[in-house]
Amino acid sequence: MKIDDVKRILVIGAGTMGHQIGFLCAMHGYDVVVYDVNDDFLAAAQRRVDRLADRFISRKRLAEAQKESVLARMVYTSDAEAAAADADIVTESVPEDPALKGKIFGQFNRLCTPRTVFTTNTSSLVPSMFADATGRPDRFLAFHFHDI
């Protein structure tokens, strides 16, 4: 896969890092799906993304006229199958528990196409701890973001 082939990014986990990663991806033109098992977390993430966009506007990192188009590129869902549809890249930002990460990657390995690349945003775990659980260790990498 080449970077120009990437159109849709799935972010698993709507918490602090997940919603920020989703926002940055949408800001750079990608369609983003933010997935979480908890609809309340998704609603909170959507509110935080709106405030984040305003912060970027105030800091002149995003033009006011771009805000609506950036937010429109983001979809929030608790439906795993819908979230996985046509995902080119999956990045997870769930709690730092290797068993949980492995379980989630195993679930999305069954739902995503074989071409989908999986990434983890872990900051304290060694990705090799759950690489095999992804079902695609050859298409799995650490992709860490710093707080924005």
Could you list some keywords that capture this structure?
17% strand, globular, 5 helices, six-stranded parallel beta sheet, alpha/beta, 148 residues
Explain what this protein looks like in three dimensions:
The chain has 5 helices and 6 strands; from the N terminus they run E-H-E-H-H-E-H-E-H-E-E. Strand 1, helix 1 and strand 2 form a beta-alpha-beta unit. With 148 residues, the chain is an alpha/beta fold. 36% of the residues are buried. A 6-stranded parallel beta sheet has the order 3-2-1-4-5-6. The protein is globular, with a radius of gyration of 15 Å. The longest helix has 20 residues. Helices cover 39% and strands 17% of the residues.
The sequence of SSEs as H and E is EHEHHEHEHEE
* Termini Cα gap: 28 Å
Shape: globular
Q: Name the helicity range.
A: 25-40%
Radius of gyration from CA coordinates: 15 Å
Strand content range: 15-25%
The total count of helices amounts to 5
Low-pLDDT runs of 5+ residues are none
Strand order of the largest sheet: 3-2-1-4-5-6
Average pLDDT rating: 93
Total strands: 6
Category by helix and strand content: alpha/beta
For the largest beta-sheet, the strand count, sense and barrel status come to: 6 strands, parallel
